[in-house]
Amino acid sequence: MESVNAKYVSQKISKTRWRPVSHSSLQQPDIFATGSWDNENNKISFWSIGNHGSSDMEDGFEGDPQLLCEHKHDGDVLDLQFLDQDRIVTTSSTGAVTIFRHHQNSETISVSQSWPRVHRYPCDNAPCTGVVCSSPEIVTVGEDGKIIVFRADQEGVVRVIENADSSTIHAVTYLRTTEILTVNSIGQLKLWDFRQQSNSPSQILSLSGDRVPLHCVDRHPNQQHIVATGGQDGMLCVWDVRQGSTPFSLMEAHSAESGVRH
C-alpha cells in the first residue's frame, strides 16, 4: 500500500516545484520548493524528503518533509519555476520577478536577481501571473497583458510585448526553443514566435463560441505540437497546434483550472 505523509506548515501554499536532477543522474528528486500566498509574511521555502543522516522519530514517518531553509517573499507567490538546480524564479502579486539562489552547502537562500514592478498598470502594480524558464532565458506574463523576456545574466529587460493581450494572461509555457504559448481570461490559446519582430501572435486558437477563461497550459513532453489546457469551467482540453483552431479532445475535470503538468 502506498503511504501518504501530511505535514502542517502553518502557511497557505500557492505553488510547489520539485528541484530538477541532472539527466545523467540515477537519483530521484528529493528536494522541492514551495511559495506561499495570502499570509502576513509570505515565503519561499526549500524542503527535503530525504533522510540526510537523521530521522524525526517524533513525526514517526520516514521521508516526512523537512524544512531546509526559507526566505521572505514580497507579495503573494503566483508562480514558481526552477531555472537550474540552484536557482528558482518567482513571480509576485506586486508585479515583481525574482531569482533566488539556494546555497546547498549552508542551506540558505539569497536573492540573485530582481526586477521589481516590471508588470504594472499606468497607476499601479499588476500581478505577474506566470513564468517559464529555459536557462538563461525567463519569460513572464501578467494581468497587464504583457509578455516580458529576461536573461538571468542581464540586469535589464530583453524584450517587452506591451499589448500582447487585452485581457489577463494566466499562464505561459515553451512550445519550442523560440516559441511560447499563452492562455488568457477570454479562452484563447496564443502562439508567439520570438524569431519574428512583430508584437502579434503567429497563431490564435480558441473554443468555438466559448470565452471561458483558460488558467493553465502545458505541452506534451515528447510530442511538442500536442498541448493541454485547463479552463475555469473544469474542462481539460487537448490541442494539436498544427491542426486549426479548436481542440481535438475535451474532458471534464473539475480541478483542471488548478494546473496542468506533465
Automatic annotation (TrEMBL):
Q: Does the keyword Nucleotidyltransferase apply?
A: no
Give the UniProt entry's GO cellular component terms: nuclear pore outer ring
| Repeat listed as a keyword | yes
Could you name the domain of life of the organism this protein comes from?
Eukaryota
Map the WD repeats onto residue numbers: 207-249
Compartment annotation: Nucleus
Matches recorded under Pfam families = WD40
Gene3D superfamilies named among the record's database cross-references: YVTN repeat-like/Quinoprotein amine dehydrogenase
In Swiss-Prot or TrEMBL terms, this protein is called: Nucleoporin Nup43-like
Which species does the entry assign this protein to? Cottoperca gobio
